[in-house]
Every structure is written in C-alpha cells, then in structure tokens.
Write a structure and sequence with these properties.
The structure is a single chain. By secondary structure, this protein is α+β, with helices and mostly antiparallel strands. It is built from 25 helices and 22 strands. Helix 1 packs across helix 11 and helix 7 packs parallel to helix 12. The two termini are 34 Å apart.
Length: 795
C-alpha cells in the first residue's frame, strides 16, 4: 500500500507536470534562448488586443523597439507540394508523392531571430527571395517523407503553381512557432507593394534587448504617432473611433494568447489536483511509516539496549525509506509513462498535436526526484519518533503506556486529519468539475440537437483540395431536392464546419457607413440555405439565404450575434464586410450565437456564406428526422449515391455525440480531477482504518475493563467512533475552509473557474463520512469482540 500510494502520487504529478511544461513553457525544438523572445500584436477593430499586424506597421515596429532582431511571418497558406525534376528550369512535375502542406512566408530575419541551426543545407538568405529562383526550407518530417534530409537539399519543389529550390532542412521536430499550426515549408515573405496598413496578416516575433516595459513604452508612443500619420488605418475601434490602434508585446508562447489562457485554466485545475494528490500520498506514506516505526518499537528498543546508537538506527530507517522511495519512483515512472501515452488518445488528432508526450530525461528525473524527496520528507519524523521510545517502556510490551502519552499517536492524528482535509478538498473539486461538465453537456449550443444526424461527407468529383466544382454544385442542387422527399427525413442542410467548430479563418474589412475599418480574421462557414432550419438556429434579424443568392449574384453573408454586436452595434443587416480584393459583401441576416458553458468559454465571431458563392469539397451533412437518426444513415447513403456514386460518406454521429466530442478537454479535466479525488478517498480510508485499528489495539485493556464493569455494545461503539468523529469533523472543516479560500484566490487570477455551491460543499462531507464509517467497521468489530478475561490477563 505504501509503495502503491507514493507511486500513484508521484507518477500522476510527474506526468501532468511534464505535459503542462511542454505545452505552456517549453520552446520549439531548436529555438535558442526562447526566454528572450516576445510576440507583438496589434489590437483589432473589435477591441481585442491580440490581432495580426500589417507590413507597414511591422517596418515601423522593427525600427522602433529595442531588439536584436525582429521578424514577421504569415502561416495561413496551404498548397499541394511535390518534388519536380532536378532542374529548377523544368516546371514539369516529376514522379513522387503529392502532399498538402502548410507554407510559412517569413521575413529576412526570421531564422536569425530564432537562432536556428539547419539539420541539412542552410536557412533562407536574402538571395532566396529572387523571383526567378526562389529558395525554400522544408521541415525535417517533410524532407524524410519526400526524400531524405540530406538528399532533398538542392532539389526543386513545386508548391501549387510555383517552383522553389530546397536550400535547407529545419532541425528535427521544429514545426513552426505556434502549436497546432504545424508548418512544413518556409519561403521568403514578399513585401507589400502598397501602403495598405489595414491589411493585417502578419505575426511578429522579436528577440528583445530590453525589458517588456521598455518595449511596450516604445510601442505605445509608436501607436500614438501612427494614429496621427495614418488615421484611416491606425485609429478607431468599435468602442472609440478616435482611439489609436494599440500595439502590445508579451512573452513568447507556442500558444496564442486566447488558447494559452484556456490551457492555463485547465492546467491549473488538473495540476492543482495532482499536487494535492501527491501531498495526500506523502501524508499517507508518513502515516504508514509512523505506524510501521511504532510497531517496531520493541525491536528498536532491544537494539538500543544492546548499545546501538540512535543515529545509526535513524540512518537505517531512513535507508529503508529511500529504498521504498526508489521502488515507488520506478513504479511511478511506469504509471507516468502510461498516462503520457493514454492522454493523447482522448483528444482529436488536431488537439493531440499540441501535446508532446515523449518520455524524456526530464520526466524520469521529475518522477524519481519527487519520489525521493517525498520519501525523505515523510520518513524523517517517523524515524525520529520510532527511535525515541523509552527502552524500558518498550520492553514492558505495554501498548497503552507507550502510545497514550507519546508523540507517535499525536503525530498520526495530525497526519490523518491533514489527509482528510486534502481528501475533502479534492472531493469538493471533483463535485464542482462534474457539475460544470454536466452543465456543459446541457448547455445552450444554439441549435436544437434532438433528432439530428451529422454525416461527414466528401463531394463527388475529387478530394478535399482538388475537385470538380461544377459537378459538386450540380450534386448539391440535386441533394437539396431529393433528400427532403426521402422517407423519415424532415429536413437536411450542409455546412463546411459543424456547430462549435472553428471555421476557416478568412480576412474581411469591416465597413461601417462610408468608412472601412481594419481587416479582421473571422471564422467562416459555408452553408446551404436549409442549414439553419435543419439545426434550428434562430434567425434574429434579416433573412436566410435563398435561391437568388447564386454564383452570379452580389456576395452576401449571414453573421452571428456576437460579430454583429462587436462590430456593428445596433443593426448589422445592410452593413458590409469587404474582402481583401475590395469586394463588398452585404450582410443579409443575423443568427443566434451558440453560447455554451465550459472552462474555456470563448465563442468566436462567425460569418456564414452561401455554398453557391463559396464552393467547398468537404463538409458535414445534417439530417433531421423524427425517427432514430442513426437508422437513417443507410437510407440517406442510398439516396446520395443514386444522385452521384462519387460521393463519400465517412462517418455518421448524432449532433449530441459531436457536442460531447467538442467537450473532450472538459471531460478529460473532470476525469483526471475525479480520479485524483477517488484515489485520495481510498488513501483516506486506508489512513482512517490504520488509525482506528491502532487506537483499538492501544485501548484493548481499557475496553476490556469497561466491558467487565458493565459497559454495553453501544458504549463501546461510541468510544471507538468518538475519535473517528473528531478526526472527521476536524479534517472536513479544514478541507472546506481551504476549498473556500482557494476558490477565492484562484478566481482572482484565473477567469472562468466553476464556483462552489451548496451541492459541492455538502456532497464532499457526506462522501467522506461514508468512507470513515466503512473504514471504522472492522476496528469496531474487533473492539466489540474484546473479551474482558483476555484483556485483564494482559495485566
């Protein structure tokens, strides 16, 4: 039990700490001195502080702030990639795999800013920006897929319609600066040919040579200056049309600020739970070690009577503790490895890509180090108390004489009270997190989910990147006509992105009246006209799409309430968004935003565009029925394949199951916290059992005398349970107080944590009381079975 307890605590703590460190604190592989890097953002028209930056503003920033190097990059482009013939002049593709890759356009100082060293070849140089023979750097993974890291240098790579010469390979596992946006190819960033500072598409990273306060002071003065010199693009927000467009520098992180804030909440909750579990495991270990030391007091007393020095005996007990710690650390490492390999399986592939689950030296050292420190810290006191017993008392074999007034019993009561307090704290957290998850699953997702089947669908005529749009449009028209006539189908609609999913980021300028404001990246979802009715998404203002919104009609869009409120205030219908090409898009309707309660509640503004004006090859078909939705899949599949046999349906789930998948992170958080609470509860049960058993053993003579004098079973039970009740009340009270204090402290630092309520405050003590009752049953039976004759004979 001792080794298992420490192993569970140290293994869980090391695994979660390692995941948190790799997710939030570690730098990408190959980036040197990452602590000197800062990210610089431009505020958006909506007032959000962490927007992208224009080319013109980047040049002013680079010439203003105190930094050794400043770089800009744009990682929003994708293209098909394949190796071509050996000669760069030969544009005829050669044989080889065709891969869909993310391309990062980078400024001249990008690799110098990161201080990267190539795995093969060299990194980009100014000459690589030449239009005739542009150079490209590929990731180690892409190089290994297409060729080998050394053989690919000098080969020509076709990206879309352009040909590049591969000049180098990045370090292994370096896939860009932003987690979740894994990069494959880096090419020179083409400078903007105009001075349109409203075209904000660039991310900025710098290696600072001064403090953040100094940099932000310079940026504040620069923002005020640019607002004066370029008022049309560098001034104005939805709240204050005259406010300068602010710049802000923050410490670099692989996660964007919003995602980092969400991940920090989850990390804080889970890490807090496993730390409490570790402390509880250590306290439990201390209780067991102390009980073990007290049980060996006779052996220790005899050794001391024979001349053994107390220092030698303490060293022996400490050595035994270290051996237990080593065994616990080894078992904890196995447990940590299992956690590291299991956690990513609970996420989608895109989410799992954020997690680095390699078993490295840091994880091994962390696990063994925590186990060793825990063994030493909670082995010292038991060793001292175990060797501090009077030899005369020990040799008298009088349990009551030793324990009644000794420090061992007092220390065990303190330890078990502490363990009960920690268990209460973890149980409260478990109830709170479970309640929050339950509310999330019942939250307002902005749709009527009952009876809706979601089918992952690929249009006929090709894959998700290369397809016959004419064939796809023809298929969608026929599908819209025939599916509603299928038995059991009430309505059907299609979208490129499911509800609560993040759409493709597309840049629009916001036009309010006659003035065009900043370009903003919105989530864009392509839908068919029947999508909103099928999912029951309420129309707040304006109209839905209809047959008049065709390919040749003026571009239109429907926006959600969140976007309308942020950027247009009173009414959005009739207002315009402007594409990067300068084409106005008329807003014809506003629909309800899906609001849902999670730990990371941060809904994103969404723009809906009609499928007829923005063809997509892959997406999701939604079918509403009054029958069992999954029973409809075969019928829908037959109808669609009859229209065009090239359609591919890859997965069918209910919309409720989709929402459940969206809440994977919440479910994982709740599962981990609940697991910590359950383990702590079991350890508390073991601790209470140990204390109660020892108390019955020490008071055997007293119980026998009471029974001999006429005490009944009820009086004996009360005698045993009084101490258990005292420990329980003290531990629960301390735990609830700590929970209330921690909740107030955490709420002041981290927004979005679930709050305590009457249910969570009352449920934990009830659960703990049940556990204490179960733990005290066996000692109580032992006490009730004490024979007065046997007890008095021991006298």
């Amino acid at each position: 039990m001792l080794i298992l307890s420490l192993a569970l605590g140290t293994g869980a703590n090391a695994a979660v700490s390692g995941l948190v460190y790799k997710l939030l604190l570690s730098a990408p592989n190959g980036v040197e001195r990452a602590g000197e890097l800062v990210s610089i953002y431009t505020s958006e028209f909506s007032g959000a502080p962490y927007g992208r930056t224009s080319w013109g503003d980047y040049g002013d920033i680079a010439g203003t702030i105190p930094a050794d190097a400043v770089a800009a990059f744009d990682d929003n482009r994708f293209a098909n990639a394949r190796l071509t013939a050996d000669s760069p002049d030969d544009a005829v593709p050669g044989s080889g795999a065709i891969l869909r890759v993310r391309i990062v356009s980078v400024s001249e100082q990008y690799f110098d800013t990161l201080e990267l060293q190539p795995a093969a070849g060299r990194l980009l140089a100014p000459a690589d920006a030449a239009p005739t023979t542009p150079g490209a750097v590929v990731s180690h993974e892409l190089a290994a897929t297409l060729e080998t890291p050394t053989a690919i240098v000098g080969r020509t790579l076709q990206l879309g319609a352009r040909i590049y010469t591969v000049v180098g390979v990045t370090p292994e596992r370096f896939r860009g600066l932003q987690a979740g946006r894994l990069a494959d190819v880096w090419i020179p960033l083409e400078p903007a040919q105009d001075e349109d500072r409203g075209q904000r598409l660039l991310s900025i990273v710098a290696r600072r040579s001064a403090t953040l306060d100094e940099i932000n002071g310079r940026l504040e003065r620069l923002a005020a200056d640019l607002a004066t010199r370029h008022p049309e693009t560098n001034r104005g927000s939805v709240l204050d049309p005259e406010a300068p467009r602010r710049f802000i520098a923050i410490d670099y992180s692989t996660l964007d600020p919003e995602t980092e804030a969400e991940a920090t909440i989850v990390a804080a909750v889970v890490l807090g739970a496993v730390v409490l579990l570790l402390v509880g495991a250590c306290v439990n270990a201390g209780t067991l070690l102390l009980s073990r030391a007290m049980a060996r007091r006779g052996e220790v007393a005899i050794k001391m009577a024979l001349g053994a020095a107390r220092r030698t005996l303490i060293r022996q007990v400490m050595l035994e503790g270290l051996l237990i710690s080593a065994a616990s650390g080894a078992l904890g490492l196995v447990f940590a490895t299992w956690i590291m390999r299991t956690v990513p399986a609970m996420f989608s592939p895109e989410q799992a890509a954020l997690l680095d689950t390699r078993i490295d030296g840091l994880l091994v050292l962390l696990t063994l180090g925590v186990a060793t420190v825990a063994g030493i810290a909670f082995g010292i006191a038991p060793a001292i108390h175990g060797t501090g017993t009077s030899a005369a008392l020990a040799l008298r074999a009088d349990p009551g004489g030793i324990s009644a007034g000794g420090g061992g019993a007092w220390m065990r009561r303190v330890l078990i009270t502490t363990q009960l307090a920690l268990s209460t704290l973890l149980l409260v957290a478990t109830v709170v997190m479970t309640g929050a998850l339950s509310q999330s699953l019942r939250g307002d997702f902005g749709v009527r989910a009952a009876g809706v089947l979601m089918i992952t669908m690929q249009n006929p005529g090709g894959n998700c990147t290369i397809y016959d749009s004419v064939r796809g449009v023809r298929f969608h028209h026929a599908m819209a006509e025939q599916l509603p006539r299928t038995a059991g189908v009430q309505s059907a609609g299609w979208a490129s992105v499911p509800p609560l999913g993040r759409g493709n980021a597309r840049t629009y300028a916001v036009q309010a009246g006659a003035r065009v404001f900043d370009r903003v990246d919105f989530n864009v979802t392509t839908v068919t006209p029947t999508y909103f009715d099928t999912l029951g998404i309420p129309l707040v203002e304006g109209r839905h799409f209809n047959a008049d919104d065709g390919a040749l009609a003026p571009p239109v869009a429907i926006v959600d309430e969140l976007l309308a409120r942020r950027h247009f205030g009173a009414t959005a219908v009739g207002q315009h968004l402007v594409t990067p090409d300068g084409e106005p898009v008329t807003i014809v309707g506003v629909v309800k935003s899906g609001r849902y309660r999670t730990l990371q509640d941060s809904p994103q503004p969404t723009v809906y565009v009609p499928y007829a004006q923005a063809h997509q090859a892959c997406g999701f078909l939604f079918v509403r029925s009054d029958l069992d939705p999954k029973a409809l899949f075969s019928t829908v599949s037959r109808t669609l394949t009859t229209i065009d046999s090239g359609v591919q349906l890859t997965r069918a789930i209910t919309i409720d199951e989709h929402f459940s998948e969206v809440l994977t992170l919440d479910r994982l958080t709740t599962t981990l916290v609940a697991a910590c609470g359950l383990i702590a509860l079991l350890m508390a049960m073991a601790g209470v059992y140990g204390v109660m058993s020892d108390a019955v053993l020490r008071r055997t003579r007293e119980i026998g005398l009471r029974v001999a004098l006429g005490a009944g079973r009820r009086q004996v039970a009360a005698l045993v349970f009084t101490q258990a009740a005292y420990l329980a009340v003290t531990g629960v009270a301390a735990g609830l107080t700590a929970a209330l204090v921690l909740q107030q402290v955490a709420a002041s630092f981290v927004h979005g944590l679930p709050r305590l309520d009457a249910v969570s405050i009352s449920a934990a003590p009830i659960a703990l009381a049940i556990v204490i009752l179960i733990a005290a049953v066996l000692p109580l039976r032992r006490a009730l079975a004490v024979s007065p004759t046997i007890a008095l004979r021991a006298e």
